[in-house]
């Protein structure tokens, strides 16, 4: 079991205590103590959805007040607001190249003659939210040299809050070599000190060491994992490949961000755009429209407003998909959903049509005699005994929502992989110790009360055998309580040391299940946390 979850929790706890006395309205300087306030702003519980103008306008003159207000109108009039899009975000070039005599940023009067607050008020009047942009450096990324936020964190945060800003994209240009964590924590604390809820988007591009995703959770609500996306297949799929291996770092309030959507900008085919949207959805990525909504065709709106696909992205459980298989450019993504369904994306990175297949067992969804597959693009449904397969066109993706439609027969043993379990906060699905079943194992936090929970379906009530596959590389046993449907049925069950984290063993207990759905939770009773849990095998009565 890795020590990192414990360290993260201790750091967050220490930071929160220190911050109670440390935060003030004064400008936050980069010499502030390392024990900065942890990000617990309650925002972005699902990935943010909205619009950003950069991919549409760049720094051209058409980026102005009328354009931004027009996007807000389109959100309402074309139904985007109704399906969940809410942020209308301004990118670089909104400001003048110099601060005013007070040191404040100044909106460009040609672009925004009524100021940013007037635009914010208009967007808020539509029931939407507004975002703004600056950089964690002396200047922003545009060559015109607009002032950045380095050493102006509290002053700029206060200004943004006074305008009614709801979202900040904080870029990485002209950073003067200052440590990334110091720069981004300084603005985090400044935003917190304003008292206004502002989603914090870290646009650091995954450049620093240690990588942003390893320290981003207590700092930002989302962080860029890649460089800038371009409107072509090669760029888009490279961003997906870089982001899809980072699932353990994503969750409610903290998301991996492979950059904005290019859907509708014209550089890809409709098939490729559906793949783009599908992959961002299963990866629980922010859905920030980057196309000119004043000019796109109806097909673009059909993609952007596909509520079934949006529901996958916005699922309350907040899991990013893991990769079940990847062979020769034929990739199976598997995302566990809050109600026990799975979203399965069969993605073809090649140019020729190919059949891509997996099974309910392979995605950790055993326990049923039949399954319903809903194709989220064609809306067709079919029933299967466990096979999940489709003919997928080149650069295409078939996205299924997989639901159980039958329960496991009595006497059968069904394996529930750790990948299908729900873990307490801070727990991760890891794959760094070989020998596990499926695609990973559950590494819960080193804390009493940390847990791993499965949902199991039984055809009939009665006594079942529960076998937990595990590894414990320490010499001390890891005791747990086992609860079924919220009631502890076995206390202090020990998971002895196995000699190494790569040596796997099993512990079995019996428990009574009810007919239908059951929850089985393993909860640590000591500060060491539970052992690494690989699977739960259930032999039904």
From TrEMBL:
<dbReference type="GO" id="GO:0004557">
    <property type="term" value="F:alpha-galactosidase activity"/>
</dbReference>
<dbReference type="Pfam" id="PF17801">
    <property type="entry name" value="Melibiase_C"/>
</dbReference>
<keyword id="KW-0732">Signal</keyword>
<dbReference type="InterPro" id="IPR005084">
    <property type="entry name" value="CBM6"/>
</dbReference>
<dbReference type="InterPro" id="IPR013780">
    <property type="entry name" value="Glyco_hydro_b"/>
</dbReference>
<protein>
    <recommendedName>
        <fullName>Alpha-galactosidase</fullName>
        <ecNumber>3.2.1.22</ecNumber>
    </recommendedName>
</protein>
<dbReference type="Pfam" id="PF03422">
    <property type="entry name" value="CBM_6"/>
</dbReference>
<keyword id="KW-0378">Hydrolase</keyword>
<dbReference type="InterPro" id="IPR017853">
    <property type="entry name" value="GH"/>
</dbReference>
<dbReference type="InterPro" id="IPR002241">
    <property type="entry name" value="Glyco_hydro_27"/>
</dbReference>
<dbReference type="InterPro" id="IPR013785">
    <property type="entry name" value="Aldolase_TIM"/>
</dbReference>
<feature type="signal peptide">
    <location>
        <begin position="1"/>
        <end position="26"/>
    </location>
</feature>
<dbReference type="InterPro" id="IPR008979">
    <property type="entry name" value="Galactose-bd-like_sf"/>
</dbReference>
<keyword id="KW-0326">Glycosidase</keyword>
<dbReference type="GO" id="GO:0030246">
    <property type="term" value="F:carbohydrate binding"/>
</dbReference>
<dbReference type="GO" id="GO:0016052">
    <property type="term" value="P:carbohydrate catabolic process"/>
</dbReference>
<feature type="domain" description="CBM6">
    <location>
        <begin position="414"/>
        <end position="539"/>
    </location>
</feature>
<keyword id="KW-1015">Disulfide bond</keyword>
<dbReference type="InterPro" id="IPR041233">
    <property type="entry name" value="Melibiase_C"/>
</dbReference>
<dbReference type="Pfam" id="PF16499">
    <property type="entry name" value="Melibiase_2"/>
</dbReference>
<comment type="similarity">
    <text>Belongs to the glycosyl hydrolase 27 family.</text>
</comment>
<dbReference type="InterPro" id="IPR000111">
    <property type="entry name" value="Glyco_hydro_27/36_CS"/>
</dbReference>
């Amino acid at each position: 079991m890795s020590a990192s979850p414990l360290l993260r929790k201790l750091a967050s706890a220490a930071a929160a205590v220190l911050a109670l006395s440390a935060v003030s309205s004064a400008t936050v300087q980069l010499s502030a103590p390392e024990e900065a306030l942890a990000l617990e702003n309650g925002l972005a519980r699902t990935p943010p959805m909205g619009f950003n103008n950069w991919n549409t306008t760049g720094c051209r003159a058409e980026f102005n007040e009328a354009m931004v207000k027009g996007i807000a109108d389109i959100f309402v009039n074309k139904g985007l607001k109704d399906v969940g899009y809410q942020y209308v975000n301004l990118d670089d070039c909104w400001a003048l190249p110099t601060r005013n005599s007070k040191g404040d940023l100044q909106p460009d009067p040609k672009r925004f003659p009524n100021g940013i607050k007037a635009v914010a008020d208009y967007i808020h009047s539509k029931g939407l939210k507004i975002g703004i942009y600056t950089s964690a450096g002396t200047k922003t990324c545009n060559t015109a040299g607009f002032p950045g936020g380095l050493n102006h964190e509290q002053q700029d945060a206060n200004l943004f809050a006074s305008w009614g800003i709801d979202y900040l994209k904080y870029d990485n240009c002209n950073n003067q070599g200052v440590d990334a964590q110091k720069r981004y924590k300084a603005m985090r604390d400044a935003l917190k000190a304003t008292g206004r809820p502002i989603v914090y988007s870290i646009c650091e591009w995954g450049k620093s060491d240690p990588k942003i995703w390893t320290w981003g959770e207590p700092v930002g609500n989302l962080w860029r994992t890649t460089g800038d996306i371009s409107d072509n297949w090669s760029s888009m799929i490279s961003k997906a490949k870089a982001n899809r291996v980072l699932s353990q770092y994503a969750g409610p309030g903290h998301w991996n961000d492979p950059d904005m959507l290019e859907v509708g900008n014209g550089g890809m085919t409709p098939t490729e755009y559906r793949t783009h949207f599908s992959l961002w959805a299963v990866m629980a990525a922010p859905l920030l429209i980057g196309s000119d909504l004043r000019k796109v065709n109806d097909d673009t709106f059909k993609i952007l407003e596909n509520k079934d696909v949006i529901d996958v992205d916005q699922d309350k459980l907040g899991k990013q998909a893991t990769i079940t298989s990847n062979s020769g450019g034929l990739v199976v993504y598997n995302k566990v959903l809050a109600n026990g369904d799975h979203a399965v994306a069969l993605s073809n990175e090649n140019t020729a049509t190919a059949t891509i297949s997996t099974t309910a067992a392979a995605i950790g969804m055993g326990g049923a005699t039949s399954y319903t597959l809903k194709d989220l693009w064609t809306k067709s449904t079919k029933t299967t005994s466990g096979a999940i397969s489709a003919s997928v066109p080149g650069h295409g993706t078939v996205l299924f929502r997989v639901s159980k439609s039958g329960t496991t027969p009595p006497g059968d043993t069904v394996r529930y992989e750790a990948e299908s379990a729900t873990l307490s906060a801070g727990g991760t699905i890891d794959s760094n110790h070989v020998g596990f079943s499926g695609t990973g194992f559950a590494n819960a936090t080193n804390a009493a009360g940390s847990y791993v929970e499965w949902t199991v379906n039984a055809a009939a009530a009665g006594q079942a055998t529960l076998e937990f596959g595990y590894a414990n590389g320490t010499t001390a046993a890891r005791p747990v309580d086992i609860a079924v449907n919220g009631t502890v049925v076995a206390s202090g069950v020990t998971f002895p040391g196995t000699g190494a984290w790569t040596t796997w063993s099993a512990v079995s207990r019996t428990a009574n299940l009810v007919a239908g759905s059951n929850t089985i939770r393993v909860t640590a009773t000591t500060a060491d946390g539970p052992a690494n849990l690989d699977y739960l095998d259930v032999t039904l009565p």
